[in-house]
Design brief:
Elements: E1 8-15, H1 18-28, E2 32-39, E3 42-51, E4 60-65, E5 78-86, H2 91-100, E6 106-110, E7 113-119, E8 125-130, E9 152-159, H3 163-173, E10 177-181, E11 185-189, E12 197-201, E13 214-222, H4 225-237, E14 246-247, E15 251-257, E16 263-271, H5 296-302
Parallel strand pairs: 1-4, 5-8, 9-12, 13-16
Antiparallel strand pairs: 1-13, 2-3, 3-4, 5-9, 6-7, 7-8, 10-11, 11-12, 14-15, 15-16
GO molecular function: dioxygenase activity
InterPro entries: Extradiol_RC_dioxygenase, Glyas_Bleomycin-R_OHBP_Dase, Glyas_Fos-R_dOase_dom, VOC_core
Protein name: Ring-cleaving dioxygenase
């Protein structure tokens, strides 16, 4: 085994109105808004990060909110379902919470695990599952305690236009291990406690279309800059078109399309989200990369106002 990622670093998606996004992921799911910044390639659009108290790798979901964006279609070449892991014994509490916010869900089972599946306001497919592994979250919000709070990602279901090629990449070149399979999915596991279970859907379907309500990319963990450069060379040698290293302020990363059309990223665990805010203040102010700081007043007027708030049930 030449290279091995420990698991998911973050998942990034395209959504609609930013306040609806904040209300759902902070207000309903109880995640912490850990960073409020802009899309480095489109600074008139927010880039919002939600995760655990410290924004740890394996807990972060990020969003590009387009209030009037075109609706996308979930399909092949995308992350189809994002899985969150919660503590053992908390699934009933999550049923009650979703019902209290009038969020429809279905109960399903996969590989002997029970899941609650539901959509966010803009159509992203989500699910929660109980697992023992992973530390309980210490972030509390509006009735969500550590006994039920989301620990981070459980993993994801990948929709691939070339399931065999995607599966081979995960196992042969990224170091995940096949641990189960059935007629619908192959299940892979990485060595991390969270963000570690990946199910590859083995039947191809319609091609996905990028837009509101779809995942833009999934990012995998690299230890540091040296490890990232080793990944860059490793993937290049395996025939993937890998980008140059991108500086995303809170991590450094590279991107490549895998054989099934899904955009993969490798992202460093460091430097993290506390390079420009301390732990107590994470997500409280708009943070801009240096190239956009001179446009702060203009961007502040352009970006829609958002706030983390408790919601009525």
């Amino acid at each position: 085994m030449e290279k091995q990622t420990s698991g998911i670093h973050h998942i990034s998606a395209i959504v609609g109105h930013p306040q609806e996004n904040v209300d759902f992921y902070a207000g309903v799911l109880g995640l912490r808004l850990v960073k409020k910044t802009v899309n480095f390639d489109d600074p008139g659009t927010y880039h919002l990060y939600f995760g655990d108290e410290a924004g740890s790798p394996g807990t972060i979901i990020t969003f590009f909110p387009w209030a009037n964006g075109r609706k996308g279609r979930i399909g092949d070449g995308q992350v189809g379902v994002t899985t969150y892991v919660v503590p053992i014994g908390s699934l009933e509490a999550w049923k009650n919470r979703l019902e209290s916010f009038q969020i429809s869900f279905t109960e399903t089972e996969r590989f002997g695990e029970k899941y609650l599946q539901f959509d966010d306001p803009h159509g992203l497919h989500l699910e929660v599952v109980e697992r023992e592994a992973g530390e309980n979250s210490v972030w509390k919000f509006d009735g969500i305690t550590s006994e039920m709070a989301i620990k981070g990602f459980g993993g994801s279901i990948l929709y691939s236009s070339n399931p065999t090629g995607t599966a081979n990449l995960l196992e042969d070149h990224m170091g995940l291990t096949e641990i189960d399979a059935n007629e619908e999915y192959i299940r892979y596991q990485s060595r991390a406690d969270i963000g570690n279970i990946i199910d590859v859907k083995m039947a191809s379907g319609d091609r996905g279309m990028m837009g509101v309500g779809t995942v833009h990319h999934i990012a995998w963990r690299a230890n540091d800059d040296d490890d990232l450069r080793a990944w860059q060379e490793h993937l290049y040698q395996k025939g993937f078109g890998v980008t140059e290293v991108k500086d995303r302020n809170y991590f450094h990363s590279i991107y490549f399309k895998e054989h099934g059309g899904i955009l993969f990223e490798m992202a460093t665990d460091s430097p993290g989200f506390m390079i420009d805010e301390n732990r107590d203040e994470l997500g409280s102010e708009l943070k801009l990369p240096s190239q956009y700081e001179s446009y702060r007043d203009q961007l502040t007027e352009t970006l829609l106002p958002i706030e983390v708030r408790k919601l009525s049930k």
